[in-house]
Amino acid sequence: MPEKFVAPDLEALGALVRDARVGHFAFVEDGRPRVLPIAIVADGAQILLHGSSGSHWLRLLATGIPVALSVTAIDALVVARSAFESSMNYRSAVLFGRCAPAADTPEGKAAALDLVTEGLIPGRVAELRAHSAKELAATLVLRLTVDEWTLKVSDGWPEDGPADVAGAAWAGVLPVRTGYETATPTPDLAAGIPQPESVRALLDS
What we know:
Blueprint: H1 7-20, E1 22-29, E2 32-43, E3 46-52, H2 56-62, E4 66-79, E5 87-101, H3 106-120, H4 133-137, E6 139-154, H5 162-165, E7 172-175, H6 197-204
Antiparallel strand pairs: 1-2, 1-4, 2-3, 3-6, 4-5, 4-7, 5-6
């Protein structure tokens, strides 16, 4: 298992995190297993996550207990000529490490939150007002420092045997299509406010 990221793997991990958007943090509390699904953003070789400062589980993660993070993106269904060979094309990573507060000052926390926002909606920070002191106090931002990790990619055609290839069943790959169909404005949106560039970019992606 690699001890540190190298450039190609770091790029692949960043792409996986961007596409998956949600990771599952596993940890042990009082001898019992727990799993916390939460939005994640890659920041170099580290992972940012955030939530309410009142969250018991987030506060527990902030103490630096060992955690395992699982991230998966499904890219396609692999339709083989037999059920046995049918599968999926996917990218998955499992990362092991410990979390800590991302910053110890309001300015640092605001910068970390901006990284999270930009990771989920690129270009959005420039369209928004600054974080208020109350919002910063109500938010806990953690940074996962990775000690060990593994990245696996499955990407290929069905591996049918000669007898099945000679048969009459269809085989191929069905890519998964992801995207945003439309942007529905909130009912209390003031008249005349257009869609922001960040939202249009996501719709066009």
